[in-house]
Design a protein that fits this description.
Elements: H1 24-49, H2 55-77
Helix pairs in contact: 1-2
Length: about 90
Amino acid sequence: MPTPFAPTVSVSGRGGRMTGSGSPAIDDATSKLRDRAQAALERNAEFLALPSPTGAQSIAQVRALTRQTNGLIRLLLGLLNSTEDT
């Protein structure tokens, strides 16, 4: 059951796409977060391929993962009023 603040979305099949909510602002935020998630997969793979990351690289990765997690939480809960922390 959707929460009162969640946009109406549907996802079909593996790798399905979310459909429009009817709100341009929400659709824009959803699109932005999906694009960021795709780019994050690539950057995370690059980090994992490092044989021995430096301390600075590890700290940067933790920050990146926190932003990525925030984006996923926003998508899951439908909190698409902002993407500032993603």
